[in-house]
Amino acid sequence: MQAEPEYKSMGPDIFDRQAKAEEQIDQALARARHGNKRVVLLFGANWCPWCRRLHQAFSEAPALRTALQKNFVLVYVDANTRTDKKRNAAVIERYGNPLRLGLPAMVVLDQDGTQLTTQETASLAAPADDEVARRVATFLSRWAPPAK
Predict the structure, then answer these.
(1) Which of 88, 76, 78, 72 lies closest to 39, judged by CA?
(2) How confident is residue 84, by pLDDT bands cut at 50, 70 and 90?
(3) What is the set of domains in the chain, with CATH numbers?
């Protein structure tokens, strides 16, 4: 049985409220090492409309989906801080509090877990969904792993 969405009016949860980000990241790094990929951490919250729009781009834009599958392992980190929830606070702190840049924020790790960059996402926003996908794909292309 699936739990009720955290914010029912927003639809199904996209960030797992129960997930331990440390474990998610460890698993993603293992997959990245095995597949010569990098890890993208998407810090966000279920109440965030822009987080949901990015999720839609990651899920539905063909070129962006292909880029992710080929070069990255994507981890959704629940960073909800509303009403003193402070989920995954230690992980947020470990990566330099990317929430200071706004929500959502992305962090790219190499396959050994070294933080390569932190990206605010307001500059990736656009009125049209295809432009959002193009901007995100362009950002990711700069951080794709070198070909082996």
Answers:
(1) 72
(2) low
(3) 13-141 (3.40.30.10)
